[in-house]
Design goal:
- With 224 residues, the chain is α+β, with helices and mostly antiparallel strands.
- The two termini are 32 Å apart.
- It is globular.
- The chain folds into two domains: 169 residues, Creatinase/methionine aminopeptidase superfamily (Creatine Amidinohydrolase, Alpha-Beta Complex); 40 residues.
């Protein structure tokens, strides 16, 4: 059912889960210290070559936009194509927005931050989602959504401030769906650095809560 980018469940469309399909989890909650909106796509069996390549290219787009360094007051629309480039390279695309503002205990989709033509320029301190995807009608859907904080980038020249993103969604990606041969060395280094942050922040909290099974899953899922 996730082959539809904006699917709404109904009693007539429910199906039994199996290990032979892709699953898309669009999750979130509202807490006193913030709002979450995180999407992950997983496959518990043997993905097809197309599923694996499409997922990897969606992940590449997520990484390319997340690690981008750009001038301050740049409109989100100007950098949005970085999330689509890896898909465009093989003639694929997605028909939804690349991200939206995230409210602090407010709206899950908070205007005017985001990557559409009517969004305001990006500034340090803004929270936005970064969520490229790919959908094949009747077959499968992929989306990888993280929440990112806009921060000042450390650049060699200090003439004018530049910006970048810092991911605050500390959730691993599905190793079963990643084709490492498609990733560049820079993308792999970024992924390893992100996984180190996940281990450092989430691991001790899982241990504090005595969630040993979740801790072991985290360690396995964040291996270099």
């Amino acid at each position: 059912n996730a082959a539809l980018a904006h699917y709404s469940p109904s009693n007539g469309s429910s199906r039994t889960l199996s290990a032979g399909e892709m699953y898309l989890f669009d999750t979130g909650g509202q807490y006193l210290d913030g709002t979450t909106d995180i999407t992950r796509t997983v496959h518990w069996g043997e993905p097809t070559p197309l599923q694996k390549e499409a997922y990897t290219r969606v992940l590449m787009g997520n990484i390319d936009l997340s690690r981008l360094v750009f001038p301050s007051n740049t409109a989100g629309r100007t950098v949005e194509s970085f999330a689509r480039r890896a898909l465009w390279d093989i003639g694929l695309n997605y028909g939804h927005g690349t991200g939206h503002g995230i409210g602090n205990f407010l709206s899950v989709h908070e205007w005017p931050v985001g990557f559409q033509s009517n969004n305001v320029p990006l500034e340090a301190g803004m929270f936005t989602s970064i969520e490229p995807g790919y959908y094949r009608d009747g077959e499968f859907g992929i989306r990888i959504e993280d929440i990112a904080l806009v921060v000042e980038a450390q650049t060699e020249s200090a003439e004018k401030p530049f910006l970048t993103f810092e991911l605050v969604s500390l959730v691993p990606y599905d190793r079963n769906l990643i084709d490492l041969s498609l990733l560049s060395p820079e993308q792999i280094r970024y992924l390893n650095s992100h996984y180190e942050r996940i281990r450092a922040h989430v691991g001790p909290e899982l241990r504090r809560q005595r969630l040993e099974e979740a801790y072991e899953w985290l360690q396995e899922s964040t291996q270099p």
